[in-house]
Every structure is written in C-alpha cells, then in structure tokens.
Amino acid sequence: MTLFKRLRELAHRNDEIRLDLDDIQATVLRERPEPYFGTHVLIHFETAEGGRDLLRRLTPHILSAENWWDVRYAWIAAALSFPGLQKLGVPQDSLDSFPTSFREGMAARAEHLFDVGPNDPKGWEQPFGSGQVDLALSIFAENEENWQKALALAEGELEKVPGVTVLLRDDFGAQPDSRNSLGYKDMISNPAIEGSGIKPFPGQGPAIKPGEFILGYPGEAGVPLGMPQPEVLGRNGTFVALRKYHSNAGSFNRYLKEHAGATGGDPELLGAKLVGRWRSGAPLTLAPERDDPELGHDPQRNNDFTYKDDSEGLEVPFGAHMRRMNPRDTHLKLLTDVNIHRIIRRATAYGPPYDPDADSEAEDQVNRGLYFIFISARAMDTLEFLQKEWINKADFIGQGSERDPMVGVQHEDLTFTLPKEPVRQRLRGLETFNVLRGGEYLFMPSLSALKWLGELP
C-alpha cells in the first residue's frame, strides 16, 4: 500500500471534521436555487483606499455557510484576483504564498488550459484577461424580488465609494426549468463534502474530504493543502475559476438534426449521447432509450448509477461530456484519482431561453451562454488538468485525440465515437458549440479574511 493510499485510508476513518461554517462564504456550499436569478459584477480598484472601503461596506452583507442549506434569501459572493490583492496592499510575503498559476492569471495560462483557436484569450471580451478585474461579485436569489433587493444593496454600496469602477454587469437566470443555454438541466452532480452536515445523495459515493475544496482542512491525502499566509487570509478560503462561454445554439440544433441518423433518426437521443443525460436531467445509463422527466427531477434517483454494466460504452459513450467529467467506475487507461479532480460547480445561464427549433446561423449570434464557476482548493491545477487531459484529449479513456463534444475545442479532422454492435460509428463535423469569451482566476476569502483585507494599513 502506498503512503498516499495509507494516509487517505486513515483520513477517511476520521469522522470528526467540523467546518467553520460561520466563516466560510455561503456560495462554497450553497447550491444554486431553482429557479434562480442573479448578477455577476466585475470591479476595478482605482485606488487601494477605494478597494478596502468597498470590502468594509460589503463584508457585512456576505452570508456565511452557517445555514447554507437555506436558500430562501438572496446572497452575495465576493472573490478577488491577484492584481486586486496587490492593489489592496497585501504584504509581498503573503502575495508570494499564492500559487504561481493564480498569480499569473487565466489568460497567461492559456497554453496550460488549451485555450486555443476560438478560445484564445486574444478573442476574449473585455475586461477578461486585461488585468483590470480586481473583484468579482455574484448575487444569487431564488426569486426576482430578493434578487433586486440584494442588487440594489450592492449597487448602493458601490455608489458610496470613490475609487472603484464597475467594468461589467451580467444578469443571469430565469430559464424555464432551470435549463442551461443548450436546454439541458444542470447542477445535478456536485460532490458531497465531509463535515458539511448533509449526507450524500444516492450515487454520489462517499463524501470527499473538505480540504479538497476549502483551505485549512485535511484533503484526500489526509493532510491540508498549502494555503496563502497568514492563516487569517488563507484558512476557510478557496479558489475560483470563472469562465464565460457563448453558446452556438443554432449550430448545435443543426448538428443534432443533420446527424440524427446515427441514433435511428432521433436528434434528442443523439444529444443525450453527446451529453450523457437527456434534457430533463435523466441519466442516459438509467434511461437508455427515451427521456424520463420524472427520473430527471428526482434527486434520490437521477445520480444513483454507475457504468459497471456499460463497460463498452454502448449506452453512454466514453467520450460523452458527463462521463468524461466524472468517469465514476469507468476503467481508465491512465490511472487517475478521480476524487482529487472533483470540483464544486455553480453554473449560471444568461441570455434568452434555449429554443430547440431555432437552427439558423442567426441563432448563433444571440447573446446566450453560460458562466461556469469552478470552486476548489486547487481550482487552477484541477481546471488545467481537466482542460488539457480530460476535455481536449481522450487518452485516459482510450479515445485518442477525441475531445469533449460540449466544451472541447473542435476542428474538422476530429471525430466522436459512438459505440455500436457489431461496428462502432464515428461522427464527424462537430463544432465548438460553447466558445470561451473570457475568464479569471480568483480567490474567495473567508469572512474573517475579507475583514482583514478591508482593514489593511
């Protein structure tokens, strides 16, 4: 038994982990409500004084995770970029304690993220990748009234502070049945976290050690990950990767219709083969022939499955988006510990609702897409691994150069393998259906760290 496995075994015997829920930001543990409303705001600090004053004003309004399961109210999340921490006056020895990838920023890490071609930072929307984004605020609410109240509160505080500038404001949510920008129910399979106070849903497997998501606690190896110093700054914080995607819904609809012959003329089944779930959220492995909305809406059943009876990928192709992102018990050609590559996701859709009948080129120009928010104590390393190895390669599942059909960067020579008997079928012509429009690496401090930052001399 390796030292890593031994440490992990010992760690999983310890069921006494208690999280400082009153110090952790609510968004780290709180699921996005359904339905949901909200706003993302990107802010630039013109002066250190302005940035610190804004944090002092906002921190009392940022909810902790103490009652994270209660989503009846709106809440605000705050995260800072490395330039933002610099401008606030964080001491240099503390700045040096942050990971190199975070200090460099997402745009500078394009090679490690395989952000090439249509996803190259040269084509990103402003202000992403410009070095001007210092603070990101996200407001979440379960109804429009609470959203507007929280938004007015945040805007009111912003107006009182000289020396800060709003660079971008994007509203999101209000999609029918909380579908994403291509019509699929999202946010079904987030990992369960040990010490959070709730048991995993069926199919989620054992809860994962909190140190994989929140700094200052044991991770899967039994010890805490390194964290920024001093402890008041790092503990109970986490890292965030924010990525904004534009969805080419027209191209996606056309592809399903034009290639539906591969699934007996059923474009919806083809879509399920690419995603791994039907639009309702029903997993393809539990509903292999047709959608089952009742199953898709049942959290006790919609994640309770494995791939042990689908070792050939006949029901769910190995390259399907969902199977790539969480292989579960799939036999991997390259040995990987799946648990240390899990992330907390907080996806939010923006723009008009998806229209399954709209397949014109003009539909691709509609301002519609997704903000992916990845939360993890090792968010940068995890995202860069996923992007380069699991999304834009397929060696780990023995599929060679194939790429994720939903978020991979495609080109005309690539294929998607559809296992069949007696002969597999290879689909061609996949397009980059979700095009990256920008992103930032961020640090989400604890509430005590936000207070510390606001009071820097």
From TrEMBL:
PROSITE patterns: DYP_PEROXIDASE. GO terms for molecular function: peroxidase activity. The keyword Phosphoprotein does not apply. Residues 283-310 are annotated as: Disordered. SUPFAM superfamilies: Dimeric alpha+beta barrel (SSF54909). Keywords: Iron, Metal-binding, Oxidoreductase, Peroxidase. Its cofactor is heme b. It comes from the Bacteria. Residues 288-310 have a biased composition (Basic and acidic residues). InterPro entries: Dimeric_a/b-barrel, Dyp_peroxidase. This is Dyp-type peroxidase.
